[in-house]
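hey can u check if this looks right to u? its 179 residues, i copy pasted from the old doc so theres a chance i mangled smth
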Amino acid sequence: MHKYEKLLDLLQIHFNLYQEISVQDIYKLLYQGTMGPRHMLQHVDKAHAYLLKEWQEVPENTDKPLLVPVSTDHTVVRINFQTAKANGITAESIWEMKYQTALHFVEKKKNFKSLWWKTMELAQNQKISYTLDQFHELDQNAWEGNYPAMHHSESYRMANYPAYRIIFVSEFEKHYPNL
């Protein structure tokens, strides 16, 4: 068993589901799982309006799983808008789940940095298909900005059309115990 088995499992889920995953997208994944959506509390009205706008633009589709883990313990997930729509889930319920997650999420930047550095070690040891140089360039920029949140890479956005929100699995289970 590899010492970073849970991290490798999380990464493999995303490598299997999505195309064009760059080092920046790996960073975002790890950031979401450890830092959550708490930042949205700074602009609640704007975040709500953006969710509703994005929801209107997204078609129903069941090609991707409804919930995709972003934390190594699988307690924090992305809820996919397309699949949610296809399952009769409403934008307002996603908003409520995201809002409750944001209120209760304890950001753990130390955990993020640890996972990020472990992922660089995986690249160095050729356990994932990225080079350490790819990580070092992004890491230098992230370090200079105190490891801020980042957007998905352009290549990821074009290949996957991501539309989701970060929530606790427990919030989903409260709202939809039978899904």
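The longest strand covers residues 76-80.
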